[in-house]
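Justification of computing resources. Each target in the renewal requires a structure prediction run like the one illustrated here; the chain below, 409 residues long, is used simply to show the kind of job we budget for.
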Amino acid sequence: MATAEGGTPNNGTGVDLRASLGRFLRRPLASYYLILGSAGLLLLLGLIMVFSSTTYMSTQQFGHPAYYFTRQLLWVLVALPVAWVISRMPLRFLRALSLLMVIGAIVLLALTYVPGLGVVRGGSRNWLDFGGPFLLQPSEAAKLALVIWAAHVFANKGKLLRHWRHLVVPVGPIAAVVVGLTIGQGDLGTSVIMMLILLGMLWVIGVPTWLFGLTLGGVGVLGVYLIATAEHRLARILTFLDPFSDYSVTGYQPANSIFALANGGWWGTGLGASTQKWGPLPEQHTDFIFAILGEELGLPGSLMVIVLFLAFGYAGLRIATRTKDTFVRLAAAGITGWFMVQTVINLGMVLAVFPVVGVPLPLVSYGGASMVVTIAAVGVMLALAKQEPGAKEALAARRRRRQRQEART
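Resulting structure tokens:
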């Protein structure tokens, strides 16, 4: 370390921060705390922004400003105990449930096609109404089920994965059914995310280049076909580079998203002071919540969200690269890829870099089914983080210290 003139160590802030960060990352539970901290802060920020972005809409529709916030908080309170249980669940139990999870997801996706059960929202028939106060979105649960089951199957195959047929069967046909049912609902955004997640997992496995290229090409051809054969999708593609060319129709959302970010400027208008949430920006609490966040919290708030997602992504990749367990590596890579891909697509929509495909910002956007599933996925990531070298021993030592402290008191 550099020293001052009198020989005293130079404890500059930058040096101290680098040293502290280095010590933290060398700890066995670094990934565990990165996942827990980044996800927790994103969840807290999301609750704040849901309340801020929906006060006017809640008052107009239901007579009090906290209607949407209360529902979001309720879903979070339901999901947190689920994530806690999953984080403490032995991985062998989670793997044993994976087949039931994917079968359940397929059944629920199929039920959306049943008249009276399937509900159309936003042009997609991807909701189930069983008559209660809440709607269920099976495609969200299907993402997590597909990741866990595919990781389990690939891990069981072991050296058989050297043969391309074992890379395709049975994951390929089952994935095709899940993606096909989702596409049939009209939900192209979720379908694209599912396909990209599976492509990422295949890349981690180390599939032959020809097979990966063939699969990627097939996904690309399918995407072009689905866009070209749907007039509303084609219109979004043709106008997303210049939303103002069709401002009143397909460009309305991205154009008003740009207005929100421009209005916020460098430092934002202040929490609760957005003007776009008063009506001009549709879906300001779901798909476009980042636009309201950028308007109210400015560049610092926007960068904070990006940094938190990068921290989550770094922790996920750290788990995947430090483990020798194939299931842990693939499940961590799959969930991390899911969160990162969905985040990039959502931010791209808000910034008018990508077409509007209707995907929420994980842990931040309003939504019951998506919130429960993403928090459950965080629970899975915490369980995977405990498999890192030295993590179990560190957790056991922490429990012993806590027990000794409780015994003294």
